[in-house]
């Protein structure tokens, strides 16, 4: 007991014994009822109506981090779908009898008006440049560089600026 008093634990132990005795003397009466599954489901549905709804995206201010994350997924999926569609059509062309070799593709693009060529280049190059630059940004995060809020925002705007410049460079070639 002397060691407990020296450490300062003896009064705390006395209080905990007293609270334990007080807790043991307090009894609470609980009554339970057996419910059918239908009645239990009805009660649960009523409780769910009173629960607060989780916030939707519409109440949040758009942030560059989640906008670029969503766009990274969309551009990746779009580029993959486009790539697979072209490769499968290139493989199926001889079977179907449609000429889809490099010479025919070049002739087809050469016959298009200038606005269609520029639009096509933009539609193909913008997702490619964005996905590439944003992927490099993610690789930088994988080695834990630029992970604070200011650096993440800065790199997001740098990706957007690089996308505009890179797309313009590829369209003008």
UniProtKB/TrEMBL annotation:
Keyword Secreted included in the entry's annotation: no
PROSITE patterns: SDH_CYT_1, SDH_CYT_2
Keywords of the record: Heme, Iron, Membrane, Metal-binding, Transmembrane, Transmembrane helix
Superkingdom as given in the UniProt entry: Eukaryota
GO biological process: mitochondrial electron transport, succinate to ubiquinone; tricarboxylic acid cycle
Transmembrane feature ranges: 74-93, 155-172
Pfam families for the chain: Sdh_cyt (PF01127)
Coiled coil: none
Protein name from the UniProt record: Succinate dehydrogenase cytochrome b560 subunit
């Amino acid at each position: 007991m002397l060691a407990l008093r020296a450490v300062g634990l003896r009064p705390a132990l006395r209080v905990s014994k007293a609270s334990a005795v007080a807790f043991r003397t307090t009894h609470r009466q609980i009554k339970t009822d057996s419910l059918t599954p239908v009645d239990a489901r009805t009660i649960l549905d009523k409780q769910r109506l009173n629960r607060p709804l989780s916030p939707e995206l519409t109440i949040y201010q758009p942030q560059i981090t989640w906008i670029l994350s969503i766009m990274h997924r969309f551009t990746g999926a779009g580029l993959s779908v486009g790539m697979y569609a072209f490769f499968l059509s290139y493989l199926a062309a001889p079977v179907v009898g449609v000429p889809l070799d490099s010479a025919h593709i070049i002739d087809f693009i050469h016959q298009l008006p200038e606005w269609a060529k520029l639009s096509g280049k933009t539609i193909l190059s913008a997702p490619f440049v964005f996905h590439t630059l944003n992927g490099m940004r993610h690789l930088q995060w994988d080695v834990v560089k630029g992970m604070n809020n200011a650096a993440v925002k800065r790199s997001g705007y740098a990706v957007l600026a690089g996308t505009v410049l890179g797309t313009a460079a590829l369209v003008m070639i």
